[in-house]
Amino acid sequence: MAKDVFECMKDSQSIRHFKSEPIPESVLTRILEAACWAPSAGNLQPWYFYVVKNQQLKDKIFEVSFEQEQIKQAPVLIVVLSDPARSNERYHERGAQLYCLQDTAAATQNMLLAAEALDIGSCWIGAFDEVKVQTLLEAPPRLRAVAMLAIGYSDEKERQTKERLRVAEVAKIIE
């Protein structure tokens, strides 16, 4: 039974230590489907996902990602790529420079929430050499690597309560 979405938002946190246990294909598929349900400008869905299970490739990506251990340790690394040209066709420069990034961020967030709902640990990774990752994946030059998710069963010893700003600190209601 999956958790409520509000519980997932509250409970989710970056997991950096993973068990070696593989993720069942049915669970991985559900996480990727959640990404595909994300909203996107004009419903263009300018995203593509490289699902990396190959340890040698994860080791190479680790080297061009500031040696973040969770990349090597997680059983699955999902590299999220955007297609700026797809967004540019309808929305021109704003589509290529902004909308495609917003759209892929929404897809990435959906994967994080789906993983949490399915008791899969995850960590959003943004620090990496974009060009080198794209080269290692042999991704078409049209695509741009914008995020990575390390996912797997958590091997964290204890979960930390995360502090958040109150709504009153970050929102202004204009009537």
Offer a concise description of the structure.
The chain has helices spanning 5-11, 25-36, 55-63, 69-73, 84-117, 130-137, 167-170, and strands spanning 47-52, 76-82, 121-125, 144-152.
Written overview of the protein:
- 45% of the residues lie in helices and 15% in strands.
- The chain has 175 residues and is α+β, with helices and mostly antiparallel strands.
- It has one domain (5-156): 3-Layer(aba) Sandwich (NADH Oxidase), CATH 3.40.109.
- α1 (5-11) packs across α5.
- The longest helix has 34 residues, at 84-117.
- It is globular and about 45 Å long.
- The mean pLDDT is 96.
- GO terms for molecular function: oxidoreductase activity.
Distance from N terminus to C terminus (CA atoms, Å) equals 40 Å
Summarize model confidence as the mean pLDDT: 96
Strand order across the largest sheet: 1-2-4-3
Regions with little confidence, pLDDT below 50 for 5+ residues: none
Derived from helix and strand composition plus strand pairing, the structural class reads alpha+beta
Q: Regarding CATH, which class?
A: Alpha Beta
Number of domains: 1
The biggest beta sheet reads:
4 strands, antiparallel
* Fold-level CATH name: NADH Oxidase
Can you say what the CATH homologous superfamily is? NADH Oxidase
Could you say which overall geometry the principal axes of the C-alpha atoms support? globular
Number of helices: 7
What's the SSE pattern? HHEHHEHEHEH
CATH architecture: 3-Layer(aba) Sandwich
Rg, alpha carbons: 17 Å
Number of strands: 4
Strand portion, in percent? 15-25%
Residue share in helix: 40-55%
